[in-house]
Amino acid sequence: MAKWEKLLQESEIPVGTRKVVPAATMDLLVFNTGKRFYACANECPHLGEPLETGELQGHVIRCTAHGYKMDLSDGHCVTEAGLDLPVFPIEVREGWIFVKL
């Protein structure tokens, strides 16, 4: 059953940055785009390469290893059907970031 997990304080991820955060079942990659926060698994669904250094274009992350692009809003791969990235809902509550795992 999915539950909300408290990750870190909102101030730990300034606008335009990202951070790898250990969670209960995996390392998450959390982004602050300035418009919203996103959380995804920190590994590309293609070959499991870390995404933490990937190029972010709006809400699309590009894996630096092979160029696959995944939409952080819903996890779908925009360059190869079926390579979906696990993404997770985020809520900010009283300055804390929570993720639903």
Q: What order do the helices and strands come in, and which of them pair?
A:
Layout: E1 4-9, E2 17-22, E3 27-32, E4 37-41, E5 55-57, E6 60-62, E7 69-71, E8 87-88, E9 90-93, E10 96-100
Total domain modules: 1
Radius of gyration: 13 Å
Query: Strand order across the biggest sheet?
Result: 2-3-4-8
Largest sheet: 4 strands, antiparallel
Report on this structure:
Helix content is 0%, strand content 43%. With 101 residues, the chain is mainly β. It has one domain (4-100): Rieske Iron-sulfur Protein, CATH 2.102.10. The strands form three sheets. A four-stranded antiparallel sheet has the order 2-3-4-8, with no helix packed on it. The termini are close together. The model has no long low-confidence stretch (mean pLDDT 95).
What characteristics describe this protein?
101 residues, mainly beta, Rieske Iron-sulfur Protein, four-stranded antiparallel β-sheet, three-stranded antiparallel β-sheet, 10 strands, 0% helix, 43% strand, globular
Please provide a brief summary of the model:
The chain has 101 residues and is mostly beta strands.
